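Its record is quoted verbatim for completeness.
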Amino acid sequence: MTPRTLRAANSGFYIGCIVFIIFACVYTVITRDLSLWAIGTIAIVGIAATVWGGYYATIRYIVDEERVTRKTLFGSISVRWAEAIELSCTETESGGVASCQITIQTSVAMMVLSSELLGLDDMQTLAADLRQSALLKDEKMTQNG
C-alpha cells in the first residue's frame, strides 16, 4: 500500500474562515468604541472560532502499510492494521451524491475515516488499496433515490 496523508477536503475553507474571523474581530475592536466586556466577548469568540477552524484545517490521517494515524491539534491516535478485528467500507449514493466510509474496529478503539471530512476520491482510492492489500474484504454499497 502506498503511504499517504489524507487531509480535510475543505481545509482551505477552514483556513479562510480563521483569517476572516480574526480580521473581523480585530476590525471591530479597532473601529468601535466598545466596553471591556464586549472586547472580552469578541476575543473569546475569536479564539473559539480559531480553535474550531484550526482543528479541521490541521486534521490529517497518515496511512501506511502498518497503521493509520489521526493527527490533530490536540494529539494523535494510531490503529495498527494487524490489530483490526473488523475492517469495513460502506459506500453510498443518494440523490447523485456519493460517500465512502471506512471503519476500523480493534479490541480497544474504533476509527472512522469518512468522505464527510476527507475527499471522496482519496477515500475510494484508500478503499481500493486496502482491498488490493487483502486488508478489506467486504464492501457495502447502498443507493437511495
In short: The mean pLDDT is 90. Strands lie at 4-7, 60-63, 67-72, 75-80, 86-94, 97-105, 110-114, 140-144. The chain is about 40% helix and 35% strand. The radius of gyration is 20 Å.
